[in-house]
Write a structure and sequence with these properties.
The complex is a heterodimer of chains A (about 425) and B (about 450). Chain A is mostly helical and about 425 residues long. Helices cover about 55% and strands about 5% of the residues of chain A. The mean pLDDT of chain A is about 95. The longest helix of chain B has 18 residues. The chains are: A mainly alpha (about 425), B alpha/beta (about 450).
Chain lengths: ~425, ~450
């Protein structure tokens, strides 16, 4: 395995597995994944409709915490999501899925999201990672998980029929976060009036949790009537106005710059080099937000091929460790406790801006100690396999002689594997 | 572990019935399928990975050659402050093993000294494979698995000996792998390695501007004092390179990080204070879980556990204390958890090889040959050190460096398998195949 292949595996992929043959042409391997369909996951994938049915049932039965149907769905979906990341043969695609899932954070901090967080990834993110950003954004904004998480399901136009009767009103949460975190970002210089206006546009974007089919529902009765002005543009009344506004925001130059910055931070360096950002921003502008083209552009960045510039997040580390060990994820619910113990509970980011993507956020002393302790626990799964062979298959030329030497002096295979998983090169991607 | 162990309650599940198994032991959220046991006897094997220095664990202080070989590695004589715990005039137990000494005095612990496998390699991994295979070559099954297969089916409506054995830990060791189905249990999630492994990890990360300072600070926060981490680790030149230092995001590539060796000579030892209930005492927790499961009426009868941290190439006096303490507390925890079943229990503690008789240049010892094996339990004819002592004087060492082996570790195992579990000579040839059959060592187990 040459350095470029190893780098493709860890930077763009999710870490290599011993059973994967080394790629002769790493760039072609990555670009092919952008053109291929997703690696099929054999397990069940509960849909949003099933999730909402669980939410409905839990409302009626009021089970004790932890024993709700919603929680059970979260565990099933979470295990499937991590299991899929460990097993996938198209790891670049999968990394893109995780990247965009974090960009459009939906968090269990809002309890109702537990039942639909996994379905959100499957339905709103996964189909669009190499498609158009505007389609992904629209799918996200209409998805019950996002409408629940950022409260839009309850937002009522004050002048709508429903608003007049109920005296309920606007909830700006989704509108504000969509502007700030999902599209143009604060740099675009929008005003509070824009936020309010966008919130009015989005009124009526709600969920039906009573009658089948459970899912997104546009409710004209609570939609604020009339055209609305957002960032200098006028959008018509009705559901169509929201769709137009979302397409406008998705293709805004500020959105392209913001997305390019986040992509380059994820694939190049914590502090994104301006030239690289400029390249990706240009691709997004020229292709009207083609995420496949932007992803291919990342592969073409020379800066993305410098090894070791990114520290793995706990999720990255866990997935890469399982892949290096070439063992499946434990099919037991406490698995999700690992991610929580490492400080990154699945789909449970503290705030809508998602998990940070810089080393400084993940390398605290106790955080690092927990990585070590977890590594020691999981390293026990090496069995009677050769740790050096696993290291070479996993890291290729990224495997440092110092680590190999330390592993040679380890007292057991498990200890040797622990040294690999806690080595500086394995902590990075 | 406390809450977990209390919740052990054997029950028969429908699924277990469908599988033809007779019971499922539940321990916390974990269910184990366990077949009815063919015996009431309990047998536990503890693998000490990393090569325990037998001459430190059970010190032959009566041998006049000892002091010259390793003057700085011999604890004070019995009766002195922090002195050896006497085992009858010739040998002394390491002072960290007071609980085991009590077992010895109660005739529930014996020591086999100058013991080794019937192979002469000094590679941990190879030697562990041989130790667990029970042969002079690596096999795909372990001797304990084959022993389970060879166990006589007891008279009580028994038809199946499968799954009466359990591996306690994150994976099934080679020792228990093979054709017989075995159960496996481990507490989920996080484990704390031995201080020596933390130290090797710190050493490996020391030159790294992100992980190095973080691990240093993390160890300090967990109670490893300055004298433990050493001034050069905590020096400004390392702490100055904090994560927050330098321009944000300017993470140097790994390739730029200076290479560091493995365990560094002169590296100060970690001997942080024991934390009550902490993961540093993970082995006693595992031992307790094993004892609890073995004590259950329909529970397993055979168990295997592992304990690492024995590879004491440097600063051995400090580094031995932690694993010995874990072993010592673990044996007591096992006895307590086994309760009434302790009297039908034999525990065999074995390691892949011993260490050099002479101290090396870093106050440690290197890979050697002869070492000790502990045999503990209520069924053990304890209170003695079994040894054909080879001596440590001039010309007595194996290859002029190691304690010469005069007993075969397989004979210890064979002695237990025959006297305690009722295996016959024919069964032993399948358990320990190839070459000369291992002759059972007599007198290890108390006559019933």
């Amino acid at each position: 395995m040459d350095l470029r292949t190893a780098q493709a595996m860890v930077r763009f992929g999710l870490g290599s597995t011993g059973s994967e043959p080394p790629q002769a042409d790493p760039s072609a391997w990555l670009l092919n994944q952008l053109r291929q369909p997703d690696w099929p996951w054999p397990g069940p994938q509960p849909s949003t409709e099933e999730g909402l049915a669980a939410v409905r049932a839990d409302r009626e039965t009021k089970p004790p915490p932890g024993e709700s149907q919603s929680r059970a769905l979260y565990r099933a979906q979470g295990l499937a999501a991590v299991g899929r990341a460990v097993a996938t043969k198209t790891p670049f695609r999968e990394r893109l899925v995780w990247f965009w899932t974090n960009h459009f954070t939906v968090s269990l901090r809002r309890g109702q999201c537990a039942a639909v967080a996994g379905a959100f990834v499957q339905e709103a993110i996964r189909p669009h990672v190499t498609g158009r950003f505007e389609d992904m954004l629209l799918a996200v904004m209409r998805h019950p998980a996002m409408l629940l998480y950022l409260d839009n399901a309850q937002s009522v136009g004050p002048d709508s029929m429903g608003g007049q009767i109920s005296h309920r009103g606007l909830n700006e949460n989704l509108a504000r976060e969509c502007l700030e975190l999902h599209t143009v970002s604060a740099d675009a210089g929008y005003t509070q009036a824009d936020v309010t206006s966008f919130a009015r546009i989005l009124t009526g974007w709600s969920i039906d949790v009573r009658n089948e089919p459970l899912g997104f529902m546009f409710r004209p009765r609570i939609h604020e009537p009339g055209a609305q002005k957002l960032m200098g543009r006028t959008f018509p009344d009705g559901e169509e106005g929201g769709i137009e506004a979302i397409r406008f925001l998705a293709n805004h130059p500020s959105t392209h710059r913001f997305l390019a910055t986040k992509l380059v931070r994820h694939f190049v360096l914590d502090t994104p080099p301006p030239a690289a950002v400029h390249r990706i921003e240009g691709i997004l502008r020229d292709t009207r937000g083609d995420l496949g083209a932007a992803s291919a552009g990342l592969v073409g960045l020379n800066e993305a091929w410098t090894p070791g510039t990114k520290v793995r997040t706990p999720l990255d580390l866990v997935v890469a460790s399982f892949r290096a060990l070439d063992v499946p994820v434990d099919p037991s619910p406490p698995f999700l406790g690992i991610l929580a113990g490492l400080g990154q509970p699945l789909w449970t980011a503290p705030e809508p801006n998602g998990w940070p993507d810089t080393a400084v956020d993940w390398s605290g002393p106790e955080a690092m100690m927990r990585r070590i302790d977890w590594a020691y626990a999981v390293a026990g799964r090496i069995g009677d396999r050769d740790p050096v062979a696993l290291a070479e298959a996993s890291l290729g030329p990224l495997y440092r002689p110092a680590t190999k030497d330390a592993m040679a002096h380890a007292g057991s295979r498990r200890e040797a594997m622990t040294l690999l998983l806690t080595s500086p090169e394995f902590q990075r991607r | 572990m406390d809450t977990v162990s209390r919740r052990v309650s054997p029950w028969v599940s429908r699924r277990a019935t469908l599988l033809g198994l007779t019971s499922v032991i539940t321990l916390g959220r974990v269910s184990l399928a366990v077949a009815s046991a063919p015996t009431d006897q309990r047998f536990v094997v503890v693998i000490l990975r990393g090569a325990m220095d037998g001459l430190s664990a059970v010190v032959p202080y009566g041998d006049p050659g000892l002091a010259a070989l390793r003057p700085e590695l011999v604890p004070p004589s019995p009766g002195q402050d922090k002195g050896l715990l006497d085992l009858g005039g010739m040998y002394g137990l390491h002072p960290a093993m007071a609980r085991s000494h009590a077992l010895y005095q109660a005739n529930e612990l014996l020591v086999v000294h100058a013991v080794a496998g019937n192979y002469r390699v000094r590679s941990h991994f190879e030697a562990q494979d041989y130790l667990e295979s029970g042969a002079d070559h690596r096999m795909t099954s372990g001797w304990l698995n084959r022993a389970v297969a060879a166990m006589p089916v007891a008279s009580r409506n028994q038809t199946d000996a499968s799954s009466c054995a359990i591996a306690i830990g994150p994976s099934v060791p080679l020792l228990l792998r093979g054709q017989q189905a075995v159960a496996n249990w481990a507490p989920h999630g996080f484990a704390e390695p031995q201080p020596s492994l933390y130290q090797a990890i710190l050493s490996l990360n020391q030159g790294d501007p992100i992980t190095g300072p973080a691990i240093t600070a993390g160890l300090r926060d967990r109670g490893f004092g300055d004298q433990v981490l050493g001034d050069h680790v905590l020096g400004d030149h390392v702490l100055g390179a904090q994560v927050a230092g330098g321009p944000p995001g300017a993470v140097p590539a790994v390739a730029e990080v200076s290479a560091q060796g493995g365990s560094q000579p002169g590296m100060p030892m970690m001997d942080g204070p024991p934390r009550a209930g902490g993961g540093r005492f993970a082995f006693p927790a595992l031992a307790k879980a094993a004892g609890t499961m073995l004590a259950a009426p329909d529970g397993p009868r055979i168990a295997a556990l592992e304990l690492g941290g024995w590879d004491t190439h440097t600063g051995q006096n400090n580094r031995m204390v932690q694993p010995l303490t874990q072993l010592d507390i673990g044996l007591e925890a096992l006895k307590t958890a086994l309760g009434e079943s302790w009297r039908r229990t034999v525990v065999m503690v074995m390691t892949e090889f011993g260490r050099t008789a002479r101290m090396n240049g870093t106050k440690g010892t290197d890979h050697g040959t002869g070492t000790v094996s502990f045999v503990a339990g209520g069924a053990v004819a304890g209170g003695k050190v079994v040894a054909n002592w080879p001596g440590l004087g001039p010309g007595r060492l194996f290859e002029d460096r190691d304690l010469a082996p005069t007993a075969d570790i397989r004979s210890v195992a064979a002695g237990i398998l025959t006297a305690h579990l009722g295996l016959d000579q024919a069964a032993l040839t399948s358990v320990f195949p190839g070459g000369e059959p291992a002759q059972p060592m007599h007198g290890l187990v108390r006559a019933a």
